[in-house]
Amino acid sequence: MDGLCGSTFWDSNLSVHTDNPDLTPCFQNSLLAWAPCVYLWAALPCHLLYLRHHDRGYIVLSHLSRLKTAVGVLLWCVSWADLFYSFHGLVHGWAPAPIFFVTPLVVGITMLLATLLIQYDRLRGVQSSGVLIIFWFLCVVCAIVPFRSKILSAMAKGKIADPFRFTTFYVSFALLLFALILSCFREKPPFFSPKNVNPNPCPELSAGFLSRLSFWWFTKMAILGYRRPLEEQDLWSLKEDDCSQKLVQGLLEEWKKLQEQAKRDEAAAASGTRASEEDEVLLRGRARPRQPSFLRALLATFCSTLLISIGLKVIQDLLSFVNPQLLSILIRFISNPMAPAWWGFLVAGLMFSCSMMQTLILHQYYHLIFVSALKLRMAITGVIYRKALVITNSAKRESSVGEIVNLMSVDAQRFMDLAPFLNLMWSAPLQIILAIYFLWQNLGPSILAGVALMVLLIPLNGAVAMKMRALQVEQMKFKDSRIKLMSEILAGIKVLKLYAWEPSFSEKVEGIREDELRLLRKSAYLQAISTFTWVCTPFLVTLTTLGVYVSVDPNNVLDAEKAFVSVSLFNILKIPLNMLPQLISSLIQTSVSLKRIQHFLSQDELDPQCVERKTITPGYAVTIHNGTFTWAQDLPPTLHSLDIQVPKGALVAVVGPVGCGKSSLVSALLGEMEKLEGTVCVKGSVAYVPQQAWIQNCTLQENILFGRALDPKRYQRALETCALLADLEMLPGGDKTEIGEKGINLSGGQRQRVSLARAVYSEADLFLLDDPLSAVDSHVAKHIFDQVIGPEGVLAGKTRVLVTHGISFLPQMDFIIVLADGQVSEVGSYPGLLQRNGSFANFLCNYAPEEDKESLKEDSRTALEDTENGGVLLIEDTLSNHTDLTDNEPVMYEVQKQFMRQLSVMSSEGEGQGRPVPRRRLGSAENGVQAEEAKARGKLIQEEEAEMGTVKLSVLWDYAKAMGFYTTVAICVLYPGQTAAAIGANVWLSAWTNEAMADSRQNSTSMRLGVYAALGILQGLLVMLAAITLTVGSVHAARTLHRALLHNNMRSPQSFFDTTPSGRILNRFSKDVCVIDEALAPTILMLLNSFYNSLATLVVIVASTPLFTVVTLPLAVFYVLMQRFYVATSRQLKRLESISRSPIYSHFSETVTGSGVIRAYGRSQDFKAISDAKVDANQKSCYAYIASNRWLGIQVEFVGNCVVLFAALFAVIGRNNLSPGLVGLSVSYALQITLTLNWMIRMMSELESNLVAVERVKEYSKTETEAPWVVEGSRPPAGWPLQGEVEFRNYSMRYRPGLELVLKNLSLRVRGGEKVGIVGRTGAGKSSMTLCLFRILEAAEGEIRIDGLNVADIGLHDLRSQLTIIPQDPILFSASLRMNLDPFGRYSEEDIWRALELSHLHTFVSSQPAGLDFQCSEGGENLSVGQRQLVCLARALLRKSRILVLDEATAAIDLETDNFIQATIRTQFESSTVLTIAHRLNTIMDYTRILVLDKGTIAEFDSPANLIAARGIFYTMARDAGLA
């Protein structure tokens, strides 16, 4: 190099050992000038590669761009001028050194490159180029040294040695500075950018390089979130590359490639096996073709991001080891009083720069990783959704809806959780190797002791983690059973109240809860152990290493440099070692998830070609030729050798006994079954009405339109013909009423009619109707048949295939297909089939009711002549015809009916205005507004308020009280104690190292080591104690809060459960209680740890360099400001994220259940788009949340890096009165603060969001409760009621204050032992009257007396336990039959068996191996409806009270069971008072008296004979039912 310059390249006396340092001219002209050029040429290939893949359209040439280019050209000219000047010198005989030719040439070419890059970036749409900003910055930094030294040398010599080069240098410096400033400004957006399309684009796209580097582009949202709670519309829209559709498309393409590859391999293997005998031996060694690997598809899709992240992580890992080396230089500087002061300042500056670089790179890395993780989850979710739309039924049978939803929610999430740890697989070993290498240099082999201890602690941590996981799994089981029991309690809360069974069920819940808390306490102790190891590991490691170091050799002196550099290296080493167990467990979990997803994605798909759509015999709409179909390849065929031809426009009935394959035939036509042989042809579009109506969770109108545009006429016609107009009047918001999930707020018949209306509206060519008339009543069925399906209906002229059990409609069919055992047994017209007297005639005899059989045999002819009057065979239901159409359908739950009524009243009163959900509006603006109002009224349930703003301090105080006073105080004392011990130990270490300075040998090593160890162990014990105290307190709080919640909920009035969705209550018991159990204590623990660590750092730095107090205040203010901004924004983003998450899963499970319907209507694409939109909506808040964390990280670490800078700077300034030990102590503390500060804010915001759970649980622990269960002062006498006399005196009742009266001034008296029937139309108040008897609803005025005792004066349980009700829907709980009959265990075995015998259940129960311990499933699903009703009868027989209320079941029960019940009641309750709400009048015709209610008042009350004679309301009802 000296030869190149003609002078010395390096002179340490000039550059290092001096108070006024400078670099040699040779160094300045060579290395310093070349450094930026080397950087630019090195970065060029990567930059060009990036631009090739990211073309955003060109940017129009602007003044800024012209100016940048001009500056670049000028710099090039200046370099050339230098070069020509050197040539000029050469010509004139004074030969310049070679360096004066090389450097201007290199710099000139580089400047030209930079100028060209400015233009190339513009053409590629780059608004702000990071590569160029860094280049200009390096140029300016490298030019600062010659800038100073040229002036100094001119001043020293008194003249300028080389005026030309002097001038060109300063001109170029000015231009470089100008270029740097210009490059910080960003260009306009690219010309063709779609900015006008996007209302709220993400500012990251157009942000400049510096703004991206520091995440400054997020500041706007942070400020907005601080000013007011963020809402959905504040979120930025996603970048094009981040949208679901694009990501899913990419992943699907890769996956399809792999699948095809696997198929090709399989085919090759198959053809290979056919090879000749000689090859067979070779072939055996060949592996069978592998399944396509989903992991490879993921890697192929996301490999570029992974590579960039690896690059960033390597740089960050290497940088983290620079600061300990700088610390060692700083301590050497302090120990050497002769060293020039600028060394110290340089080291402090370098420490700060290095920390800042580390911060910026780390957060770019995290941002990249977390966003990729998001995209990964998005892509997996989309792929699973698309697969779920096309899997075969056999695959569906293998995995339930819940399991498929789990793939989407749990397994896809696992990938997202793993992503941040993924690079640790190579990064952790790298960090560990580097740390050990530097430690070895520092302390030699002694460090092996410390490392060995660390490695030994890994299996301990691993074992604790494994044990905790096992406990968690066990605890989940208890939690699941508790939630299951709670959900059953909520579903059957009315029954519990009516029977006064709440205490027994509360006890069961408490029992499970105690088991849960027992495990929680165990895992909490384990948590305390792991906290102990986490806090004490660094200390123990330092202790053993230093102990071994000083004991091995008396000449080993422990000085400040060795001690504190080792401490900071051990701190670095701690992180990868702690992360490894986490990484391993995360990898194991994800590999399980990967297998599950891969298995699901490899399932068979439905063959779209199995139904031929194009060609068909002319004149036919459906043909099946020799068709054999099965539901799964491993099952025998369900349908075989079918030959069916349906002419266009025909009306065809498919009939046959249960299980003969009628529904399967419809599925075969839709292509839902697997075709084994034959051909199926279907012409035109299809509309499908399944047997079980599939209803979406959207408005009624959207359910009917099903994605088609609204045509008012056609829509109105669909509503009229499907008899939905009457229902719309009942629904609170008309057709804008929101229908709950699975159509929960519609009755079975209404759901079926909505499903039919959807088909009618679709105007398809072929209608496949799978028994749509079974769920509706006979006269509604007749209406629908006549108006829709029949020859005169709106579908006349279309092809209709109707599966039916209703015999009455068969005469009007064009022809009838009779199925038996999966084969067509007969086909023909109605008269033709009757004359054949084959299986069809048998079918008619089986299905027709008794009285009609005779007429069938005699009168088949008249039946045929009478086809216009389809009512010959219409079985008249004994329901009164003048009630609403909807009245006599099997309404799902009485509660719902009552609830709907309440809602309609409530919304008209204007109380229940929910926030209308913005939806597509139709018609004029005014119409839109009306529609919105209707929609608001039709909200099924008011939206849950998302809590806004900060969580109040009172909530924290509530939690502290729940933990217990002494526990809270103990925690407050223990934490400062442990911090003090830790500081003490480190100060002691610092004093020990200073002793070495004074004298080159250390004397009292053992004493020093002993005190150090004692202080450290004291710290460990205090940590352990604090953690245990906190966990004990948190378990206590969890128990207290849950008990209060349960206690209050069991005592809430029925109206609370009617207006609050059970999911919302259940959420308190599951999610919120879970947060209180598991998340709250660790969060508080970490928060206290990080708070006291930060405090300790500040105390140590201020104690060693008091000057530091000057900067403490501004830094603290900045920190608190950031914390306020961040917490407000991130909390709301988190809320928005959780609100937008559940619709994804509910839409998904809805899609899986309705996939048949979606495919039949050909709407798969639309549903994919809907799902993508829901996922994107969720991603928007996720993306902003990730950015908020990075933004915070950069701001907070900036504070931390300032602390490092000032700690080092003030140490340098005050070095004359500071010992190296103190400097080492304060700077090594400062180096840790960034992590602690960051963690502290995180934990604060975590604590806030977790405290919301306490707030929500508290909210439901303070709701209003019903009257006391037992009133001690006024308990009824034993044996009450003796007569069973019931008297209503001027009784009025309303559902809630401010609403209309439902019952008005009822006065009546029922004598003991009387049998009274209660009748009336829907809404007359029948059920309300019986509920008042049980005080489920309380009186507005008047009173009810039983045997002369006012029921309002006694406790609810005293009252309810003496009355008995057999409710309308029999509700059973998943427990043993004995528990269902007698939850308190009050009756003997014989009593129970006798009750079972009387209720005709004896044979069934005794045939069960478990007998009375027979387990009923949830809701009694494993018993028939009739058997469930009989269990309710057995309950009544066991109680045998003097007053029995019967809320008679409508269509839910068969006639046989009904007769059993009536007969038993007549014999067993002969002396009791019986009140029956009757739907079938024939059951109450022999009662003593009949009460007719009308609009909440008594219309008639007399014996049946007298009422019929009076020809009033009862007479008309009896006449309609054919009884008068």
Give a verbal description of the structure.
The protein is an alpha/beta fold and 1524 residues long. Helices cover 63% and strands 8% of the residues. It contains 50 helices and 19 strands. The strands form four sheets. A six-stranded mixed β-sheet has the order 5-6-7-3-8-9, sandwiched between helices. The longest helix has 51 residues, at 502-552. The chain is globular and about 140 Å long. The termini are far apart. Residues 280-287 and 849-938 have low confidence and may be disordered.
Count of helix runs? 50
For the secondary structure, the number of strands is: 19
CA-atom Rg in angstroms = 41 Å
The percent range for helix content is 55-70%
Low-confidence stretches: 280-287, 849-938
The coarse silhouette is globular
Largest sheet: 6 strands, mixed
Gap between N and C termini: 123 Å
Strand composition percent: 5-15%
Main structural class: alpha/beta
Trace the largest sheet across and list its strands: 5-6-7-3-8-9
**Mean of all residue-level pLDDT scores:** 83
Any key phrases for this structure?
single chain; about 1500 residues; six-stranded mixed beta sheet
Give a topology summary.
Layout: H1 2-5, H2 12-15, H3 25-53, H4 63-91, H5 99-123, H6 130-157, H7 163-183, H8 209-214, H9 219-227, H10 244-273, H11 277-284, H12 294-319, H13 322-335, H14 341-388, H15 393-398, H16 401-422, H17 424-443, H18 447-491, H19 493-499, H20 502-552, H21 560-601, E1 620-630, E2 639-647, E3 651-655, H22 662-670, E4 674-682, E5 686-689, H23 700-705, H24 712-721, H25 725-730, H26 748-762, E6 766-770, H27 778-789, E7 799-803, E8 815-820, E9 823-828, H28 830-836, H29 839-847, H30 850-865, H31 894-908, H32 925-938, H33 953-963, H34 965-998, H35 1005-1050, H36 1054-1059, H37 1062-1104, H38 1109-1153, H39 1155-1160, H40 1164-1213, H41 1220-1261, E10 1286-1294, E11 1301-1310, E12 1315-1319, H42 1326-1333, E13 1341-1346, E14 1349-1350, H43 1356-1360, E15 1363-1366, H44 1377-1381, H45 1389-1398, H46 1402-1407, H47 1425-1439, E16 1443-1447, H48 1455-1468, E17 1473-1477, E18 1489-1494, E19 1497-1502, H49 1504-1510, H50 1513-1520
Parallel strand pairs: 3-7, 3-8, 5-6, 6-7, 12-17, 12-18, 15-16, 16-17
Antiparallel strand pairs: 1-2, 1-4, 8-9, 10-11, 10-13, 13-14, 18-19
Helix pairs in contact: 3-5, 3-6, 4-5, 4-7, 6-7, 9-38, 10-12, 10-14, 12-14, 13-14, 13-21, 13-41, 14-16, 14-40, 16-21, 16-38, 17-21, 18-20, 18-21, 18-37, 20-21, 20-35, 21-41, 24-26, 33-35, 33-41, 34-35, 34-37, 34-41, 35-37, 35-41, 37-41, 38-40, 38-41, 40-41, 45-47, 47-48, 49-50
